[in-house]
Specification:
Blueprint lengths: L4 H11 L10 H12 L13 H14 L2 E6 L7 E7 L3 E7 L4 E6 L2 E5 H10 L14 E5 L15 E2 L5 E3 L2 E11 L2 E8 L6 E8 L2 E8 L15 E3 H7 L3
Parallel strand pairs: 6-13
Antiparallel strand pairs: 1-2, 1-12, 2-3, 3-4, 4-5, 5-6, 7-9, 8-9, 9-10, 10-11, 11-12
Length: about 240
């Protein structure tokens, strides 16, 4: 699963303040998230209504519908990510390939396996050593956002008619979200109802990824890590001496 623009802000929550001292990173991330996605796009005169209206419809459908997704990653080179969303139980992302691990989200709380957490920090220039006793632990943090933020489209997205396509035989409209010249997401949403997200292509600093969304309405059980295998961000920081 690539990191869409909205999800990138949530991912930053896991990276910021992990070993540094100071205030909790929750507030800063919520602010960044809000500033990145709170302003809706101007009216779009393309056929079929405004992009903002279609994005809202897609987000509502995806938030309330079980689905799976599989794709490559701009976060972990050479890795494959499988996502499962169960509206009643939460989100599960399994990473395999060059690095393996799991991430979960339920009721706005994110759980990330300690090895993935360490790898993410490494990519941000922070090196940590996970003690052997913590190698099967999940670091938890509360984002203040619903778990659907990991796959929701930003309301700033605009239709990109030149990129419209068919995805597995389904006509799809392209919705483009750009944070900068080096960070772009192209969402392919169903042209007709039900309003599904069908595919996502992302670019981050020259790295690209592609994710396909499938099995709409097919529920898969999402089971969170047991309580004895989880640590809050502050507790994890204390255990590694941060």
């Amino acid at each position: 699963m690539p990191h869409p623009l909205r999800a990138a802000a949530l991912a930053a929550l896991l990276l910021a303040g992990a070993v540094a001292c100071g205030d909790s990173s929750d507030e800063g991330t919520s602010t960044a998230e809000s500033s990145a996605s709170s302003s809706p796009a101007p009216a779009d005169d393309a056929a079929g209504g405004s992009a903002a209206a279609r994005v809202e419809a897609v987000n509502e459908t995806m938030r309330t519908t079980a689905f799976s997704a599989i794709g490559t990653s701009t976060a972990y080179d050479g890795a494959l990510q499988n996502m499962t969303w169960n509206p009643r139980q939460g989100l599960h992302i399994r990473i395999s390939g060059t690095i393996g691990g799991h991430m979960y989200c339920q009721d706005g709380v994110t759980y990330i396996s300690s090895n993935l957490f360490a790898e993410s920090l490494k990519q941000q220039g922070q090196e940590i050593t996970v003690p052997a006793g913590l190698d099967d632990v999940y670091v938890t943090t509360k984002s203040g956002e619903g778990c659907d933020a990991y796959f929701a489209l930003s309301p700033t997205g605009r239709f990109s008619p030149a990129d419209d396509a068919e995805v597995n035989g389904t006509p799809a409209r392209a919705v483009k979200v750009s944070a900068s010249a080096s960070a772009t997401d192209m969402y392919y949403v169903s042209a007709e109802d039900p309003a599904y997200l069908l595919k996502l292509k992302s670019t981050r600093d020259g790295r690209t990824s592609s994710t396909s969304y499938v099995d709409f309405g097919k529920e898969t059980t999402v089971t969170l890590p047991s309580a004895d295998k989880t640590l809050t961000m502050d507790a994890f920081r204390a255990r590694i001496g941060g």
